[in-house]
Every structure is written in structure tokens, then in C-alpha cells.
Write a structure and sequence with these properties.
Layout lengths: L8 E4 L5 E6 L5 E8 L13 H9 L9 H9 L4 E6 L4 E8 L3 H13 L6 H13 L11 H10 L12 H6 L2 H11 L5 E7 L6 H5 L24 E6 L5 E8 L8 H11 L6 H8 L6 E8 L4 E9 L4 H18 L3 H17 L4 H14 L8 H6 L3 H11 L5 E7 L3 H12 L2
Parallel strand pairs: 2-6, 7-11
Antiparallel strand pairs: 1-2, 3-5, 3-6, 4-5, 8-10, 8-11, 9-10
Helix pairs in contact: 1-7, 9-12, 9-15, 10-11, 11-15, 11-16
């Protein structure tokens, strides 16, 4: 049984750029995306933030569109909406628009991506530095709990770097650095072109042809992290705020790991709606906090399960205990049959919903191609729905190993609370 009700086509341009075509004739908008292997994990301490800054600079202009305004106007007058995002191990550029504008947008998009001129560097630095300051306190200290958790887990490995970098480094970036980074990463062998949605299959080659302007380059491979953690790690950062930002981060495994389907089902049993284990134990039964969630942050060779909460300072230790106890219940007993059936159904429904969104469905397939994983291939339904109660229980047990536990709390905790959290963590 195929997962998708239509054929997905792929081919390569003469420069080696993979082109993924996801025709969805039932929708009314088209989507063009460029996915490239770049991000903080491909950087050094000195260059940290360069990938993100380059992403900002891409839409600053070309020879024919000599300003950020002219770039945006050119796409918006065709009904398009430009977007861009830098992740740890990839950047994504995309435009969604009515089908009628595709043939005009395609060469414009290829020009913007392949021949940026890097206008107004100093202006963009101000914007990016403002973005960086959102994660700092008045003294310039890092207070973003997600960033701090990755630093705690990965240390000096690039997976421990922030995506945005430091303001001092950003201020040092110049056109030469941007151009060198662009030339080494924005290449055909290091990217994937996506055409999805209302795509006329007879015009696919015409739409893809302008992207042959990208240099061939080579596929870049990141260095995998080595973990030497032997016991739980904790980090407490003082920050005067109304609540403590809590992160309980459990080292997992990468997107391509064969246990990934079981982890997907575990996360849906643990936190996929307000009737799941985490919310019930933390909020419904004990009223410990309003905002609590869990999610998986996966890379191609590693991954983290995060439990996130915003909580009153004095209740932080209670939330740590309650959240881990909720996961321990699954590790001890596994999910109920009803929980697992609900998780399977919601998984299927979410993927069916993606059939109405060319951006979402296309991105899943493009990321799979870019990062060499197979989660969204045609057999996804069978592999995910084959997960058993024991599979889910085994993954929960794996996550709760003491050497996988990392806790970050950013707020105003009393010393006795910090000791209580450390004691609890060390007696798992």
C-alpha cells in the first residue's frame, strides 16, 4: 500500500542538483523550495552564525533586483510569499504562489539563490544582532534554555553552537566570508530542489532549468558527536523573570535510526494533545504549570527528546519529578492498547492532512532526500503502524538511562531546589 495517492518524481540536472517533484493536482497553490546542507553544525567557533547571516543576506538582492525591497516586490506581485529558515544542519528557502506565476518566479528564485550580491551588509547586521539579543539578558548572558541545553549536551561540538552565533562574530562577517560560505555550501551536490503542489508536469524541466546555474560542488558531510556522558548533568542559570524556563533533555538517536518509528509513537503517547500522559500528569492532575510540552529534535546522526515547561520558580523541582515519572510509567508498563491505537490514528491523519499542504508534504520528502533518511518514503505507513507496545516501552527505557539525562533551569531557584533536582536526577 503506497503512502501517497500520487507519484513522486525525481531526477537530476546536469550540475547534479536533485529535483524532487510532488504533483498535487487537487490543490490551488504551487511551491518551490531549495533545501541546502548548511547550518551551525558545519561551522567553527569563529564562523558560528555565518550560515544564519548568509540566509538573511540571500534575499538582499541581485544584479537585476538590487535591493531587499525589489526582491520581495518581484515575488509578491506574482502572488508569492518568500520565506527562509536556518536550522542546525540545513537551510530552507521557499516561495508559495498561484500556479500562473510559476514560470516567471522560477528564474527569479534561481537568480536570488545562485547570484546574491550581498548588498547592505551593515544594515542586515543590525537586524541579526537584534535577533541574537532576544536570547540574552541585560548583561549579555545566554538565557535561552534550548541553546543552553545543547551547550550542556554537546559542549564544543558544533551541535552545541547556537544557530545565530554571537554579536561580535556577526559584526566581523564581511562580503568575502559570505561569498566563500556561499560558494562552498550553495551547490548542486549539497542541495535539493523541490517543486510541489499545483505543478504542470509538462513544464517541470522548464521550471527546474534555471537552477542549473548553481555550481556543482560536493556533498558535505558533518562530523558526528562523541558522547562521554556517564551521569546526569544539570545547569542552573539565574534570571529575574516571572517563571523558570525548564528543559529536561534526553539524548536519543538520529532520524535514520531503525528505532525512529517507535520513538514517534512514544512521543505521541507522551505528548500529542491534552489527553496524553505528560499534560494529564503535570496539568490536569496536579496543576503544576500551564505550558508543558515534549518534542523530538532530530539530526541525521543524533537526536534529543526535550520536555519543556514554563513554571513558577518554587515548583520547578516538582515538575522535573512529575515529568520524568510520567515517562517512567511508559518505560515500566508500556502504553495501553487504546493509547497506542490513538497514536497510530493521529499519525495517519496528520500525514493525510499534509496532502492538502504542498509546503508541508514537499518539505518532508525533500528533507528525507537531503539528509539521506527514508521516513517519508512510500512504506512509511507500514513501518510506523507496525510499532508494538513493547517497542514503545523499550525506547522509553532507553531514554531514561542516567547517562542520557540533562536538565537546564533558567530562573530564580533556591539552593535547596537545585539540590533536590540534582538528587532526584542522580537516583534515577
Amino acid at each position: 500500500m503506497k503512502s501517497l495517492p500520487f507519484d513522486v518524481r525525481s531526477f537530476e540536472l546536469k550540475n547534479g542538483l536533485p529535483v524532487l517533484v510532488v504533483p498535487m493536482p487537487h490543490v490551488h497553490r504551487a511551491h518551490v523550495g531549495f533545501f541546502v546542507r548548511i547550518g551551525s553544525r558545519y561551522e567553527t567557533r569563529k564562523s558560528n552564525g555565518l550560515s544564519h547571516f548568509l540566509e538573511h543576506m540571500i534575499y538582499r538582492g541581485t544584479d537585476s533586483l538590487p535591493s531587499a525591497h525589489s526582491v520581495n516586490f518581484a515575488f509578491e506581485e506574482l502572488g508569492g510569499s518568500l520565506s527562509a529558515e536556518t536550522l542546525v544542519d540545513a537551510s530552507v528557502f521557499s516561495v508559495s504562489l498561484p500556479k500562473v506565476g510559476l514560470k516567471r518566479v522560477s528564474p527569479l528564485f534561481a537568480e536570488v539563490l545562485s547570484r546574491p550580491r550581498f548588498f547592505d551588509i551593515e544594515v542586515e547586521k543590525k537586524i541579526v544582532c537584534e535577533e541574537i539579543l532576544e536570547d540574552r539578558d541585560d548583561e549579555g548572558r545566554e538565557i535561552d534554555a534550548d541553546n543552553l541545553s545543547r551547550q550542556l549536551i554537546y559542549g564544543n561540538h558544533p551541535l552545541g553552537f547556537t544557530i545565530t552565533g554571537d554579536t561580535k562574530d556577526v559584526e566581523s562577517f564581511d562580503e568575502a566570508a559570505l561569498r566563500a560560505h556561499h560558494e562552498s555550501h550553495y551547490t548542486a551536490r549539497n542541495g535539493v530542489l523541490l517543486l510541489s503542489g499545483a505543478i504542470d508536469e509538462s513544464s517541470i524541466e522548464e521550471l527546474a532549468a534555471p537552477f542549473a546555474a548553481l555550481r556543482e560542488g560536493k556533498r558535505l558531510t558533518p562530523q558526528s558527536p562523541e558522547h562521554h556522558q556517564k551521569k546526569p548533568r544539570t545547569l542552573f542559570v539565574e534570571n529575574a523573570s516571572s517563571q523558570t524556563e525548564l528543559r529536561i533533555s534526553l539524548r536519543a538517536f538520529g532520524e535514520s535510526d531503525p528505532r525512529r518509528p517507535a520513538l514517534e509513537m512514544l512521543m505521541r503517547v507522551f505528548d500529542d494533545g491534552m489527553s496524553t500522559r505528560l499534560y494529564r500528569r503535570i496539568s490536569d492532575e496536579r496543576g503544576l504549570c500551564y505550558e508543558v510540552s515534549a518534542g523530538y529534535d532530530g539530526y541525521e546522526d543524533d537526536g534529543i527528546v526535550d520536555i519543556r515547561a514554563s513554571v513558577q520558580h518554587t515548583r520547578t523541582d516538582e515538575v522535573v519529578k512529575a515529568a520524568i515519572d510520567a515517562l517512567r510509567e511508559i518505560a515500566d508498563e508500556g502504553p495501553t492498547d487504546r493509547e497506542l491505537e490513538k497514536a497510530r490514528d493521529r499519525f495517519v491523519w496528520d500525514h493525510e492532512f499534509a496532502l492538502d499542504a504542498p509546503e508541508d508534504l514537499g518539505a518532508r520528502l525533500a528533507f528525507d532526500r537531503l539528509l539521506g533518511r527514508q521516513l517519508a518514503s512510500v512504506d512509511w505507513r507500514e513501518r510506523f503502524l507496525a510499532v508494538t507496545r513493547d517497542d514503545v516501552r523499550d525506547v522509553a527505557r532507553l531514554l531514561l538511562a542516567r547517562e542520557r539525562l540533562n536538565i537546564v533551569a533558567v530562573g530564580l531557584l533556591e539552593p535547596e531546589q537545585e539540590r533536590a533536582i540534582e538528587t532526584f536526577a542522580n537516583h534515577l
